[in-house]
Amino acid sequence: MQKGKIFVVGFGPGDREHITKRAVDALQQSEHIMGYKTYVDLIEHLVTAKTIVSTGMTEEVSRAQEAVKQAEAGSIVSVISSGDSGVYGMAGLVYEVLIEKGWTEATGIEVEVVPGISAINSCASLLGAPVMHDSCTISLSDHLTPWTVIEKRIEAAAMADFVVAFYNPKSGRRTRQIVEAQRILLKYRAPDTPVGLVKAAYRDTQDIVLTTLAEMLEHDIGMLTTVVVGNSSTFYYDNKIITPRGYQRKYTLGEEKQLLKPHQRLKKEAEPWALDQETGEAKEGFEKIEAIEKKTTNVSVTEWSSLQLANEALALVRPEEKVENPFLVQQKQESIFEFAVSPGVANKMITPQQMVTLAEIVGEKGTMEYTPDHRLVVKVPSMDPQKIVATVEQTGLLVQPVGDVVIVKACDFCYGEKAESIPYAEKIMETLGGLKMPKELHVGINGCGMACYRAVFDDIGIVYRKKRFDLFIGSKPVGRTAHAAQPVLEGLAPEQLIPLLTEIVADYQANAHPNERFFKYFKRVKKILNFEYVDMACKIKVEEAPCGD
């Protein structure tokens, strides 16, 4: 006899556009379809099965048993769930029935779980971006799970500042659970925490309500509603619920915001709160509970509940009795200001007073890292970067942006003994330093033909020699196939230097791909201005690195 098969199909929200092709194929291959009546009605037009068995809400076990029976008789069967069949769906029950019968994958009927879009995802897409940080789903149905267990899970999620999506929040007989869930959450979250109520996502009867934690019970909530509760940093913007990706916002000079690149973000100093992989320890303090300023919302929601109004009135009459909520979880979204400092282009000496000033700015929570570019990169929590810049500049230090910008590095000009070209180096810094680029662009300057500061290993190398400049471009500064830059010009007149550099930088800035290093750009385009590309790579065959570089 032919072996049967069970598809456990999650068909997503229910509309055709959000059902996967694999789900449709499975349904159309099946001879028998089994599911809750409401779900069967949603997909009936897609199937050609001989029999369609639709049963009530609490008859999941009988559906799973019948599916196994039909599959063991040689039929292809689909057991359907809305959303994803592995998230509060039928997948687990089907396996439980099979396990009771001694089923094994090697000898038993074939089982394929077909994933679908779960309610937390479909509802989030309609609300904006509420699930951008750690989140959890909690079913408020206590038919199969004791309420005391559900209660503990809600409290744990509330304490840990999870975004929470409540499934099965309320039914005709279960009306108290959502009330208790709100009570627990209000112990740890502000009353104005954004809440989205989505009923029948992507179906004809779809209904979306934007409200707050304090006011959510004033709206209709039923079995087909998913309740999405934001965390302490979630806010409303233009009728959207937005949860920031993290509790820290990093920015640098010249930009309101600057996202870290992957190689920067994963550095230990960029994530001081992360678990140390060697010691198994993490720094404390980043979980500090503090009040935060709430974002402005233009969503029409009731501003005050009657309970809040009463409490406020009492506080005005008896202000000494007003008690702060000791459990309220409000993670402060910290702004991290990143910048670089150096004593100057030619000067390499930092004074004790400058170091003291930097140490005071960095404090206990900031970091300060010395880099190969002869700069200190400073990262500090701050909402007032202008004040920090002014304080640092008062000490005589040069403040520069970090990230994908032009970075100018020069030698020490033999501690100032070979000072002829210093004004040109300072002019290059003034003209080009900090300009936004597709990728970090390093400009190196040497004050004599010895080139001891290795300017020829920078993206653009400048060597002062015999009162004129030699120009090198396109070095590959890193990797096992690293090589010096290509010499493209000798004896350049000083007055021609800045205009030529400006043109080269502008060419790269305008035409390079995002994240494309200068040497790769030169190799790809073969010509920058009138300088033709010449392959300077090592001619000895070297095994490629895993990254292919």
List the helices and strands and how they pair.
Blueprint: E1 5-10, H1 21-29, E2 32-36, H2 37-43, E3 51-55, H3 60-72, E4 76-81, H4 91-100, E5 110-114, H5 119-127, E6 128-129, E7 135-139, H6 147-159, E8 163-167, H7 177-188, E9 194-199, E10 207-212, E11 225-229, E12 235-237, E13 240-242, E14 248-252, H8 262-265, H9 306-317, E15 334-342, H10 352-362, E16 367-370, E17 376-381, H11 385-394, E18 398-400, E19 406-410, H12 422-432, E20 441-446, E21 460-465, E22 468-473, E23 486-492, H13 494-511, H14 518-525, E24 527-528, E25 531-532
Helix pairs in contact: 3-4, 6-7, 12-13
What does this structure look like?
- This protein is an alpha/beta fold.
- It has 14 helices and 25 strands.
- The chain has a 5-stranded parallel beta sheet with strand order 3-2-4-1-5, sandwiched between helices. A 5-stranded mixed beta sheet has the order 7-8-11-9-10, sandwiched between helices.
- α12 (422-432) links the parallel β19 and β20.
- The longest helix has 18 residues, at 494-511.
- It is elongated, with a radius of gyration of 32 Å.
- Mean pLDDT is 85; it is low at 256-266 and 288-304.
